[in-house]
DNA sequence: CTTGACCTTTACGTTAACGTCAAGCAAAGT
DNA sequence: ACTTTGCTTGACGTTAACGTAAAGGTCAAG
C-alpha cells in the first residue's frame, strides 16, 4: 500500500486477469516480486514487466518466448545479438500473419455484408407478407 | 484421380496440413467427403470448405465457430439472421484485436529497432578494438 | 508374391495456460 | 472472540487441436 507498490489483486484488476495468471507467470520465471512476510509486493518495474508480458501474449507469443523477449530488456544478459535477430524475425513473421489476417477479415467481412443484406431483404419481405 | 477430385494427401500437401487434421475436421462435422470403397474423395466444394476452415482458423476462430460459420454458406439452414449478427460481432471483435496487435507490433518493432542499433554499435566498437 | 506407397480406423498421449478446489495464515473490522 | 477479506501454497482438472502409434486394407510395380 506504500508509495508506488501494488498488491497482486490490484494488478489483476488493473489488467483484468486473474491472480492465478500472475502467480503462474511468476512460476514460469517471468516475474519475481518482493515479499513482505509471505505477501507479494509489486513495484513499478514489475508492473511494467507484466505489461510487456501481456503485450507479448496479445501478439500470440508463448510465455517462453515472452520470457526470452524480456531478457532483451535486461542489461545483464550479453549475448543479445542472436536473440535479437531471432525476435526481429519473429516479429516479421507476425507481421506477415497480420497481413494475411487483415485480408481474411476483409474477405469475410464482405461476405458477411452480402449475407446480411440477404437477411434484411428476407425480413422485409416477411414483413410485407405479415402486414398483407 | 478423376476430374476435379482430390485425395486426402493431395489436399494435405496443397494446404500444408496433415491428413490427421483433415480427418479431424471431418470428425467434427466440418467435412463429409464421398467414399469410394473406404477411401475419401474430395470434390471442389469440399476443397472450398477446407479453405474456409483454414481461413477461419487463421482468424483465431475455434473449429466449433468455424462450423457455425460454414452453416451461413448453407442455404438449407434458415435461422441465419441471429447467427449472422453473432458473427458480424465476432468479426468486429477480431478487428479490434487486430488493431491492438498492430499497435503492439509497432511498439515492439521500434523497441527492437533501437535495440538492434545498440547491438550494431556494440559490434562495430568491438571490431575497432580487434582491429586496433 | 512381395514390397512399398497410400489409405483406413481406433485410441491413447500431448501441450499450453490457466481453472478450480482445498486448506490454511494473518490482519482488520464489529 | 469471531468473522470477513485477502493472501498464500499445492495439486489435480480442463480444453482444443491435433500427434502418434498400432494394426491393418488395397493396389500397382518389380
Provide an overview of this structure.
Two copies of one chain form a homodimer. Chain A has two domains: 59 residues, Multidrug-efflux Transporter Regulator, Chain: A, Domain 2, CATH 1.10.1660.10; 55 residues. The model of chain A has no long low-confidence stretch (mean pLDDT 87). Chain A has five helices and three strands; from the N terminus they run βααββααα. The longest helix of chain A is centred in the C-terminal third of the chain and has 52 residues. Helix content of chain A is 70%, strand content 8%. In chain A, 16% of the residues are buried. The termini of chain A are far apart. Chain A is flat and about 70 Å long. Chain A has a three-stranded antiparallel beta sheet. The interface between A and B is medium-sized, with 28 and 28 residues. The first copy, chain A, binds a DNA duplex (30 and 30 nucleotides) through helix 2.
Mind sketching the topology for me?
The structure is a homodimer of 132-residue chains.
Chain A: E1 5-6, H1 8-14, H2 19-27, E2 34-36, E3 39-43, H3 44-58, H4 63-72, H5 80-131
Antiparallel strand pairs in A: 1-3, 2-3
The first copy, chain A, binds a DNA duplex (30 and 30 nucleotides) through helix 2.
Keywords:
flat; Multidrug-efflux Transporter Regulator, Chain: A, Domain 2; 3 strands; homodimer; DNA-binding
Amino acid at each position: 500500500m506504500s508509495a508506488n507498490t501494488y498488491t497482486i489483486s490490484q494488478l489483476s484488476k488493473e489488467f483484468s486477469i486473474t491472480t492465478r495468471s500472475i502467480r503462474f507467470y511468476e512460476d514460469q520465471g517471468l516475474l519475481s516480486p518482493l515479499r513482505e512476510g509471505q505477501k507479494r509486493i509489486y513495484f513499478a518495474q514489475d508492473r511494467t514487466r507484466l505489461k510487456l508480458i501481456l503485450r507479448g501474449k496479445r501478439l500470440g507469443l508463448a510465455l517462453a518466448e515472452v520470457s526470452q523477449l524480456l531478457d532483451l530488456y535486461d542489461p545483464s544478459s550479453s549475448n543479445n545479438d542472436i536473440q535479437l535477430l531471432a525476435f526481429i524475425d519473429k516479429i516479421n513473421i507476425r507481421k506477415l500473419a497480420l497481413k494475411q489476417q487483415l485480408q481474411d477479415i476483409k474477405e469475410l467481412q464482405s461476405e458477411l455484408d452480402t449475407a446480411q443484406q440477404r437477411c434484411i431483404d428476407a425480413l422485409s419481405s416477411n414483413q410485407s407478407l405479415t402486414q398483407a
